[in-house]
Amino acid sequence: MLSRWASKISTKHTPKPGLLRSSAHHASFYAPAPRRSPESPWQARNNSVNAGLSPAWSLAHLLPSESPSSGLVQSDAQRNTIYALSTPPGKAGVAVIRVSGPDALNVWQSMVSKSSKRNTTAKAEKKTGQSFVPKPWRMYRCQVVHPQSKEVLDSGLAVYFRGPRSFTGEDTVEFHVHSGRAILNSVLSALSTFASLRLAEPGEFTRRTFESGRLDLTEVEGLHDLINADTSSQRQAALQAVGGVLKHRFESLRGTILRSLSLVEAVIDFGEEEVEDDVYQEAKALARRARTDVQLLLADYRRSEIVRSGLRLAIFGPPNAGKSTLLNFLAKREAAIVTNIPGTTRDVLEVTLDLGGLPVIVSDTAGIRSTDDVVEKIGIERAIEAVEKADVKLCVLDVAELDKAHPASEELITIMRRIKPFLLVNKIDSEVSSPPQATFLADQKHGVAGAWAVSLRTGMGIETFMNELGMKLHETYATHLELQRDDAPLVINARHREHLTAALQFLDAFLGQGAKGVFEEESTGSPEDIVLAAEELRYAAQAIGAITGRIDVEDILDTIFREFCIGK
Ligand SMILES: Nc1nc2c(ncn2[C@@H]2O[C@H](COP(=O)(O)OP(=O)(O)OP(=O)(O)O)[C@@H](O)[C@H]2O)c(=O)[nH]1
Ligand SMILES: [Mg+2]
């Protein structure tokens, strides 16, 4: 049944020997068509549509067919040359389509032809439309043509990367064509006609890079983070990972554990009498060093989280001080309602912003004051809650409040004394007897962490406030990464933390009960104790190895690569 059906289609559009129209899901990036039964009415409609279309637009390749030569359709595993659109679909100047695998050069020879020259001399015309063997790593101005009909699909650029010097480590061809729906569809459809090609799975290009050993897992994750970075600190952290800083730190950590393990194994192999006494001490010292390193990395996790997911900044203060005006200024839009009626904001309003390159989740809160209004009371409770859980607390005060004997409610003063927030004195444009010295006020009044005087209305003092606040945040959370330094603070993720925690437990077990007595002068450790201790070290090394992918980590690979988009 299938072969009869396939031969029917091939009368509409005969493929060249060796070329095969691919099955449905490889054919169209935009609208993968489901496999249909040969009897379906869809088939008849499709055939009649095909009759009037040029091969490039033909839908025939969406139907399952058979290889004219072998009579067999290749499985996905056999079609190990992959292709995909690597740029977002849509109208744009340029789109990049990647082909990676053993058949990449064959694709080039079937689909890249010399671009027509402006001059129309007979010689130039003769050259036009010819296929040619490219020099690797060189960009060619060319025409991208359909492999069978030779119809020109677009004119653009193409480059051939000869493996292993390519991203994936395999032969790779990139087509840089104009980004338009019809162009992309036609090029992707043309690629689907190759028997050995299939559409890449999400992240498959990067997976091949990992499998070829060109990137370790921390670098792969860095690449993913780099693509998804929203702020400069995230970009820096991702570059740090892509540049191998994480890899080197984890590899050196694993090296320390393995050195310790090798010393313990020497004791196991040669017996305690045969090895020097200080071998025990050295093994122990190395394990301790590794343990300290792991602890440092784990202690730094909050900073990593801040770089990755953002810092919480809560704006609080008495009513009418300009808190919502500040939020709107930071968000560069009217996110919060602003009126001159005290008590305008009732609930907590959150906006995520990029402040000085850091992702910051800013909350505007209800003004804190004594009130009998039930709704306002709830709002104030929520405000206090938001301030308590924020990393950065910023109190906004109206400058006029500072002249009063009791500038704000008792409750507010108590909070300020306890949490020592940053202080922003607002409305310095309004008429007050003498402009306040913000730092003086800060020190004298509530012992705040830093203070500025601004007018959110006129913009006075705001630049200084923004710059200094940004710097203070970076200092406090050490989020300025020095990418070049080997001992630069690392930005780790939850997966790294999980393995580090496991490693810490194994190291603790090694240094604790398992090896108890073994490394003491008056050693009472039995040979069994030493063997068990060695096991703990081996597990610790494995846990660190899992971070970089140095051990068998098949189960975690899928999770990581699934996060990527198709074409990466
Ligand atoms: N003169 C002057 N007025 C300002 C300044 N900043 C804000 N205002 C005004 O102060 C009033 C209160 O501003 P909001 O931003 O709503 O104050 P808030 O702290 O959010 O007040 P609640 O939501 O009631 O707690 C509005 O009329 C603002 O236009 C400033 O720098 N100078
Ligand atoms: Mg408000």
Description:
The protein is α/β, with parallel strands linked by helices. The protein folds into four domains: 2-62, no CATH class; 81-211, Gyrase A, domain 2 (2-Layer Sandwich), CATH 3.30.1360.120; 225-300 and 490-562, tRNA modification GTPase MnmE domain 2 (Four Helix Bundle (Hemerythrin (Met), subunit A)); 310-477, Rossmann fold (3-Layer(aba) Sandwich), CATH 3.40.50.300. The protein has 20 helices and 13 strands. It has helices at 2-12, 24-27, 41-51, 104-111, 122-127, 181-192, 204-211, 217-228, 232-242, 245-270, 278-299, 301-309, 323-331, 374-389, 410-419, 438-446, 462-477, 494-514, 527-548, 554-562; strands at residues 81-85, 92-100, 112-114, 139-145, 152-161, 172-179, 197-199, 311-316, 349-355, 358-364, 392-398, 422-426, 450-453. The strands form two sheets. A seven-stranded mixed β-sheet has the order 3-4-5-6-2-1-7. A six-stranded mixed β-sheet has the order 9-10-8-11-12-13, with helices on both faces. Helix 8 (217-228) runs antiparallel to helix 9, helix 10 (245-270) packs antiparallel against helix 19 (527-548) and helix 18 runs antiparallel to helix 19 (527-548). Residues 1-71 and 513-524 have low confidence and may be disordered. Guanosine-5'-triphosphate (GTP) is lined by residues 319-325, 338-340, 342-345, 366-367, 426-427, 429-430, 455-457. This is TrmE-type G domain-containing protein. InterPro entries: G_TrmE, GTP-bd, GTP-bd_TrmE_N, GTPase_MnmE, MnmE_dom2, MnmE_helical, P-loop_NTPase, Small_GTP-bd. Belongs to the TRAFAC class TrmE-Era-EngA-EngB-Septin-like GTPase superfamily. TrmE GTPase family. It comes from Phanerochaete carnosa (strain HHB-10118-sp). Keywords: GTP-binding, Nucleotide-binding, tRNA processing.
